[in-house]
Amino acid sequence: MAVTGNGNRDASGPGPLAGVRVVELAGIGPGPFAAMLLADLGADVVRVDRPGGGALAVDPAYDITNRGKRSVLLDLKAADGPARVLDLVERADVLVEGFRPGVAERLGVGPEQCHARNPKLVYGRMTGWGQDGPLAETAGHDIAYIAVTGALGMIGKPGEPPAVPANLVGDYAGGSLYLVIGVLAALHHARATGAGQVVDAAIVDGTAHLTAMIHGMMAAGGWQDRRGANLLDGGCPFYGTYETSDGLYMAVGALEQQFYDTFVALLGIQDQAPARKDLARWGELREVVAARFRTRTRAEWTAVFDGSDACVAPVLSLREAPDHPHLAARGTFTDFGGIVQPAPAPRFSTTPGALTTGPALPGAHTESVAADWDVPALLVKEKAEN
Predict the structure, then answer these.
(1) Catalytic amino acids?
(2) Which of 98, 347, 361, 379 has the fewest beta carbons under 10 Å from its own?
(3) What string of DSSP letters covers 264-306?
(4) Cis, peptide link before residue 161, omega less than 30° from 0
(5) SS3 59
């Protein structure tokens, strides 16, 4: 991808989505992250920021979810705002918006208005509740969406409140990733048929979809519908976390017999541990494992299990993670523009992606977008103000 001296870029870039044009109507949370993923994959993402900024109290220079994008300032409530967006839409392959249902239509940039200008457009809609249903028009956040799907209720210790997994399960796994999957599938269809469509990505739908395996296990009698009582939810003594002597933690996932055998041998409890298949003694097994882990520091146990098939790893903080030897060797994290951040994922053998620009500052790329997308009307207001 060509990068100009002032940090702008043209529409060509590395990654499998090079040449794909995306219009992102500024929002917060899963919509911007989904657009970041598309940019990471090589798409030319133009973010339409509103004058005065959004609701996220983060310095735009540090908002990593806007990396690799370009930004123009447009007021959708101004008389000419919708027309300028439609000018961009006419030249785009994808649009991403995260308004409540009906808002984009009232602003003049809903699916009908956009498809009138560009029938091939993939119109991606990111919401919590979806475009219909009793709660569609109500406010919400990640925690409420994952609560009603059953996902939140699975996480945590029995007898304690459910543990909140930041906003990773709902906003990003159930929301952003499903929006990107939908957009890419619809883009494939549009290129094959010439017909665009609307992608209704609801966080409740995506999060519910993530629980598919658990529902199957429950139907088969292999999962109890309560916290901390199952193989993968911390109920199993050889799939969970344990405190070390320095107050840190190790994660254990020795599910298969051969891995479990290695685990108990390296932990040094093979002569004390009750049979792992005796569920009635799981509590006793947990106490034995916990007591042993408390005898050494996290660093010492990390060294013990390093390179083994025991399926044990140190629980690292966000600041520690980039220095983990395996992640460092793979370049899982990178320092770009002075900000340590995750590198683009996944990886491609023929069309590898790469970070090319940092977070797009609101309105910083009006001239380059106007030129590259051939939308000179973007400059009219700017020139009038000078």
Answers:
(1) 141, 171
(2) 347
(3) HHHHT-TTTPPPTT-GGGHHHHHHHHHHHHTTS-HHHHHHHHT
(4) no
(5) coil
Residue ranges in 41-167 assigned as alpha helix (H)? 81-90, 103-107, 111-117, 142-148
1 versus 62: the higher-pLDDT residue is 62
CA 34/CA 171 separation, integer angstroms? 10
pLDDT digits (tens, 9 = 90+) for 163-201: 999 999 999 999 999 999 999 999 999 999 999 999 999
Provide DSSP, 60-89: GGG-GGGBT-EEEE--TTSTTHHHHHHHHH
Reported as a single tens digit per residue, the pLDDT across 198-220 is 999 999 999 999 999 999 999 99
Pairing status of strand 21-25 against strand 44-49:
parallel
CA distance 183 to 17: 12
Residue type, 326: H
> pTM of the predicted model, to two decimals?
0.92
Tokens of 351: 């069309």
Cβ neighbours of residue 131 closer than 8 Å, sequence gap 6 or more = 101, 125, 200, 202
Structure tokens at 145: 């969406």
3-state helix vs strand vs coil in the chain, percent to 5: 40, 15, 45
